[in-house]
Write a structure and sequence with these properties.
Elements lengths: L6 H11 L12 E2 L3 E6 L13 H22 L4 E12 L7 E6 L3 H14 L1 E12 L2 E14 L5
Antiparallel strand pairs: 1-2, 2-4, 3-6, 4-5, 5-6
InterPro entries: HotDog_dom_sf, YiiD_C
Pfam families: YiiD_C
Protein name: Thioesterase domain-containing protein, putative
Length: about 160
């Protein structure tokens, strides 16, 4: 079974690795192999104005891109460290209710190039666009560059 077929187990594991995620009111991770969605409730992510805290929105976007990158690599049987290299975030509208992040798998050419570079050089970069949505409206758009580095086998 690929990790894209068991996103609930993946999210449970991730919450053990990044304790902050246990406090964000995350819902079930959904990944169908083409699009990843990760919902969150407003209450634990609220700011002093009664809207979604920008840091929470940025965290949800960042972790969603990380999840997509990691799941793509796991489906290729690649054991890698994944990290965000840099990103640009645009806040478009205040969040006044529950929200979710969406990220779509890039074109097959982009993914194939990413995997090929990783296999050849031991590291590669993947650019993703992640959106945070509330009631069908974009509240945040993040363009992020994620880097994967193959883990060295000990021995």
């Amino acid at each position: 079974m690929t990790t894209s077929q068991d996103p609930v187990a993946f999210l449970c594991w991730l919450k053990t690795q990044i304790p902050l995620l246990n406090h964000m009111g995350l819902g079930d991770l959904k990944f169908d192999g083409h699009k990843l969605m990760l919902p969150a409730v407003l209450a634990p992510n609220i700011n002093d104005k009664g809207t979604g805290f920008g840091g929470s929105l940025a965290t949800l976007a960042t972790i969603s891109g990380w999840c997509l990158t990691t799941l793509l690599l796991k489906d290729q049987m690649l054991d890698c460290d994944v990290m965000i290299r840099d990103c640009e975030i645009r806040y478009l509208a205040p969040v006044t209710g529950d929200f979710h992040a969406e990220v779509v798998v890039p074109s097959s050419n982009d993914v194939e190039g990413f995997v090929s570079r990783l296999r050849d050089k031991g590291r590669a970069r993947l650019t993703l666009e992640v959106v945070v949505i509330q009631n069908g409206n974009k509240a945040l758009v993040m363009q992020g560059n994620y880097v994967a580095i193959e883990r060295k086998v000990q021995g």
